[in-house]
Amino acid sequence: MAIISDFEEEQTETQTKVAPPSESSSLLKAEKKEVKVEDDKGKAGGSKLVPNKGNGVDLEKYSWTQNLQEVNIMIPVPAGTKSRDVLYDAKARHLKFGLKGQPAPIIDGDLFQSIKPDECLWSIEDQSVVSILLTKQNQTDWWKSLVKGDPEIDTQKVEPEPSKLSDLDTETRRTVEKMMFDQRQKQMGRPTSDEMQQQELMKKFTEQHPNIDFSKVKMMN
């Protein structure tokens, strides 16, 4: 009977120790879930990243943002860094940046697209951050990465800031205006600018050649 009694006491102790999930364990599970959600936010469509607030990427050694005209790079550097400590070389398709005395450059690679080197500049802010401004050669495309080989962003997730058409150069403004016009036409079920041009050309051609039957001719888009 003593054995049974001891067994019952051990079972009672075990039941006492095994308590329902506490509030702290529930919070721990919630924290793990939140971490997973945050991790998922950094990815979109396979290995591509969701852009940061500036439509770029925050990397370990630097971060970059962009609009259609420019790319801005922010590089943390040791406090007290002077301009004479900076090694900077920007070419049409290559960027190299580092600091004297360091074994390797911080950035050294082929750019995602071409830039205008003569219109690029850099500066030191608060002696702790180097800011590099790159002017894009093609000002109608979003960059997927700063240099080739870096993690790429999903450009479909880019959220451009509202801008005035007057702020754009002539060629870009015409392209944007055409895109806006064509979008409105499609929404109303009307022909786009290219389709209108084709119709106008066909009209002129039929007027010049009234004896030709164009009723079965299909317009190519």
Shape: elongated
The class by helix and strand makeup works out as alpha+beta
Treating each run of at least 4 consecutive H or I residues as one helix, how many helices?
4
Helix content: 25-40%
What's the pLDDT, averaged over the residues? 80
| Low-confidence regions | 1-19, 21-25, 27-45
Number of strand elements: 8
Order of helices and strands: HHEEEEEEEEHH
The biggest sheet amounts to: 5 strands, antiparallel
Strand order of the largest sheet: 1-2-3-8-7
End-to-end Cα distance, whole Å, is: 95 Å
β-sheet strand percentage? 15-25%
Tell me the Rg in angstroms.
31 Å
Annotate the secondary structure layout.
Blueprint: H1 2-17, H2 23-41, E1 57-58, E2 63-66, E3 70-76, E4 86-90, E5 94-99, E6 107-110, E7 121-125, E8 129-135, H3 170-187, H4 193-208
Antiparallel strand pairs: 1-2, 2-3, 3-8, 4-5, 5-6, 7-8
